[in-house]
Amino acid sequence: MKFFIINSGSSSIKYQVIEQGTEAVLASGLVERIGEVCGRLKNTSFPGSSDALETVIEQPIPDHYSGMMLVIGVLTDKKHGVICHTSEIGAIGHRVVHGGEDFRASTLITPEVIGAIRRNIPLAPLHNPANLDGIRVAMEIFPEVPQVAVFDTAFHQTMPPRAFLYALPYDLYERDRVRRYGFHGTSHRFVAGECARLLGKPLAECNLITVHLGNGCSMTAIENGRSIDTSLGMTPLEGLVMGTRCGDIDPALHLFLKQNKGMDLESIDALLNKESGLKGLCGLNDMRDIHKAAAEGNVRARLAVEVQTYRNRKYIGAFMAVLGRVDGIVFTAGIGENDPIVRAESLKGLEVFGVRLDPDKNDQRAGEARCISTADSTVRVFVIPTNEELAIAREVATLVRP
Ligand code: ADP
Fold first, then answer.
1. Which residue, among 327, 326, 307, has the nearest Cα to 318 in the 3D structure?
2. Are strands 25-32 and 89-96 parallel, antiparallel or unpaired?
3. I need a labelling partner for 120 at 20 to 30 A (CA). Which of 49, 74, 80, 253 fits?
């Protein structure tokens, strides 16, 4: 059976076709600039033993439906295609950002599920409508195929109230659902599962700290396989220092910015989401550029790395205190997988808590999951590549039987 994995954004559709069982990626691609003057589809197919075949199509793509039809045209194309007919797709997995408190796990999509995703739009006003567009279009094109929603928030629904409640009037939680939800759940869950395998014990017996450092960054405390705390909150702004997002700040800053700089809430929101984080500190948000600038003597680039890694360390320390026993710390995503400097600085000083990084192993470049701590480290440290699409495909496989 083949699974079609869809991550639908407001003007883009990211997708993969994955073979069940072998977990081979048969095709992957991105439709972007939907609704703009000129759209673009880039598809890479991996047909059998031959080399990867790339297709780029540039043409107006007015909506998600035409974008999806373009993808299906390429996937069934005689030369570049990986399926002969859409009937070969056995199930479709959709990434959905916000499941609110309605979903603790992935689920088959029904009209009730669509209703619940819609009810959660106020919690993710940009993402859930775009995810629903993808679901609607896929249901139109594949009416007979089971569709599964995999939520970014579901893994964190095991957090206890002491971790998910803000110290605000309780009414705001009960009536308006104001609480911490957390995100990147599919990634945290995936790398935790891979880590359990490397540790050689069931996930349900593992205490882990998973550190997802990409453009967006988050950290999760996992106790006996379940998320008990995470750094992102009601929205994906809280916690760690990210590419352009500030992470934790004093909530009174809004008032200061309004009173002293005459900013309105929308411009403050844009400042905190798009102009802050690493970019705010040094003008750059790609960690590779930041290291290069720091090496050339750019003091603020160096400072940006220090602010980010100091915040990482602070959260690791907090989550160690929350968990007590920690079996493993896992680094993942673009920075986590590729950046030995950030990993080393994020763990600096934690030797006293039994975290000992092996500098040679940390410096080695490899695309595979690996342990980078010394043999005598009581807390093992891992680099584990995340794979959200594969994680979604595995979720689909548990819900859809051939
Ligand atoms: P997203 O959160 O958008 O999925 P990724 O997980 O792909 O992002 O991470 C993107 C970030 O990873 C980039 O901004 C860049 O800073 C960082 N990155 C990618 N490759 C490297 C590298 N070799 N060294 C350091 N950082 C890297």
1. 326
2. unpaired
3. 253
What spacing in Å lies between the alpha carbon of 363 and ligand 1's midpoint? 17
152 in active site: yes
- CA of 367 from ligand 1 middle (Å) equals 14
The CA-based dihedral angle spanning residues 361, 196, 323, 102, taken in that order and rounded to the nearest 10 degrees: 130
Q: Which of 133, 152, 229, 339 is catalytic?
A: 152
Domain ranges of the chain: 2-151, 202-388
Beta strands 328-332; 380-383: pairing state? parallel
Is 158 in a helix, a strand, or coil? helix
Q: How far is the CA of 398 from the centre of ligand 1 (A)?
A: 30
How far apart, in whole angstroms, are the C-alpha atoms of residue 146 and residue 218?
31
Is there a common fold for 2-151 and 202-388?
Answer: yes
Nearest atom in ligand 1 to the alpha carbon of residue 287 is 16
Cα 65–Cα 67–Cα 69 angle in degrees, nearest 5: 70
The whole-number mean pLDDT for each consecutive block of 10 residues of the chain, a chain of 402 residues, reads: 95 95 95 95 84 93 95 88 88 97 97 97 94 95 96 98 98 97 97 98 98 97 98 97 97 97 97 97 97 98 98 98 98 97 98 97 94 98 97 96 78
- CB atoms < 10 A from the CB of 323, how many? 18
Quick check: 194 and 166 in contact, CB under 8 A?
A: no
Q: Which tokens sit at 170?
A: 């309780």
Write down the residue that tokens 């997802």 correspond to. 212
Ligand 1: residues with CB < 6 A are 214-216, 243, 286-288, 333-335, 338-339
Tokens of 280: 């705010």
Domain 2-151 indexed as CATH 3.30.420.40? yes
Distance CA 386, CA 333 (A): 6
Q: Looking at ligand 1, which atom is closest to the CA of residue 278?
A: 16
